[in-house]
Request: fold
Amino acid sequence: MGKDVLNYTQNRELSWLRFDERVLEEARDETVPLLERMKFVAIFTSNLDEFFMIRVGSLYDMAAADNKTIDSRSGLTAGEQLDKIYEAVAPIYKERDKTYAEIKKQLHPYGVCGLDFKELAAQEKKYVKKYFKEQILPLLSPQIVDTNHPFPHLLNKEIYVVADLKLDNKNMVGIVPVPQFISDILYLPGHDIRYIRMEKVLMEYLDLIFEKYEVSSKNYICVTRNADISPDDEMYSENEDFRHVMKETLHKRRRMAVVRLEVAHPLNKDMEKYFCEKFNIEPKCIFRTKMPMKLDYMFAIADKVPESMRRSLVERPFSPQHSPMVAEGNVMNQVKQRDILLSFPYESMDPFLQMMKEASVDPNVLTIKITIYRLARKTRLVEYLCAAAENGKEVTVLIELRARFDEQNNIDWSERMEEAGCRVIYGFEGYKVHSKICLITYRNRNDIRYITQIGTGNYNEKTAKAYTDLSLITSNQEIGEDAASFFQNMSIGNLDGIYQHLIVSPSSLKPKVLSLIDEEIRKGKEGRVIMKMNSVTDMDFIHKVAEASKAGVKIDLIVRGICCILPGIPGETDNLTVTSIVGRYLEHPRIFSFGKGAAQKIYIGSADMMTRNTEKRVEVACPVYNEGIKKRINRMLEIMLADNVKARLLKNDGTFVKKPASVTPVISQEVFMKEALKAERPVIPQKKPSLFKRIRKALR
Reply:
């Protein structure tokens, strides 16, 4: 441990793994329906995949370039961090396998059965063999590896069935890719949900695939490749079309270095050595998994469950409700009268989308400007933006083509919007645009007026039903003027704009947050800070929080994932509490609250307190001025801090613990769902008709 490493910080990667363990903890919670528990295993698996592709991939690059630089939070070099990660992951794999096996076993009595070939009935074996011969075998592309046939390139996160082959005393390796365009599982005939995974079917019939050969040491494997790439600066500046650069970048990602190899069965020493040489990895990078390497099919299985069993196996369905802040009728007119706050997924995204539809045809609307980071594959928002452009509005869309794993989707949408007449611009060299801001400019008699929307989450109609987020829509003219300046600055590449109300990274967001904490430090024990976000890694922020704690300020951080500051360190972070909530929905809002009572200041926005967000991204946070909305957000924070079922407290050793048992269990997400179901839409009183209209009506 380096001498200058602080005792109140922890390694980012190990903190990330501890968060993922919290997800696995939900999978073990027996109060959660079985198929929902299996979904948490799938989410854990997906998170772990991304961790290896991005975080481990990044550390591999750092270790290769310079393995002497020491991480300030943990005192470890990149190579030492990798050693710690591989050491920490091994027991997590065993815990995941055990959790999966327990849930799978408990699903059997309900007729949801994932089977091995030996568990199939005779008729089922006959069915599978016939299906394999007719539907699968013609689609396969088996390969052999010997002196005349080089080892093929294995795609990231695709499954391959492998085996030792022998022909005329000559040894070689056989490899069969599981085709990407067929289902991951084969459903068996009958009323129950009985299925077998496709890789198991292929492994069973390797003798038919390699019919000339003697087959032994059957296995299936999956490689994880480094996916932490960014477009080369030189390419960026020399090529006029950034979309072309991103397409080249995505192609490059497919061939990046292997950082993990997963195997279904233990490898013998020869095969282990063989794969280590082929993938240029060490044995520590090889992990045996007894559960599926892909588990996405569980979401489809949950949809197939008969109605009679749904209550036992899946959560009671919940649909986003009408917002109690929005009445029926024209949304733009309502926003002109008062600010509106939407809370996803408890409330529907529809009022925002309806407002965009209204703006697309409103003759008084002049321009629509928006920043886009992630979109759903089917999206009404793009329809309305395209319609607005086709109706003669000036539509400017700043779309971030480097939104990780959504690059191709964003490329496709950018082309669609350009074709419709939208002005499409991209992010900046070295900076991603992660903000969620939309500005509608309209003419009101002789004045130019604004409606501004600022959110904590993406304009993604699918994730708005699965992620918790806030969306503020305001007609505050000064905020609108700031938003107009922001879009002007983005259009000319100015990242150093000055704003009166909005706080924007990379220029003003972090300094403003630190100065607001300084204000609380000056109050000492009367100071109060509550901040909700996804991750905390920024060292300037961490130092300031520790300083505030030492000054007696009471600080609550609600952090879903990575948190590099440790609470409860004597003399350093005694007054800091860190809470993590993992529940039915993915916690996603960023809320910053400073002070109490009339002096309290609240901001919502797109930024986490991570250095990448505060220094290397364009982020926007907006003050909340409406007293009713401030009161509502305060209550949300209060309920989240009262959660004693799905919330965990971070200890000073980096582990999470449950809150002490309480007579009254509080599950914050359930509270918000129940309140959304009970809420009533306001009724806007109709204006009385004029005296002239009443007389005319009476005379009819």
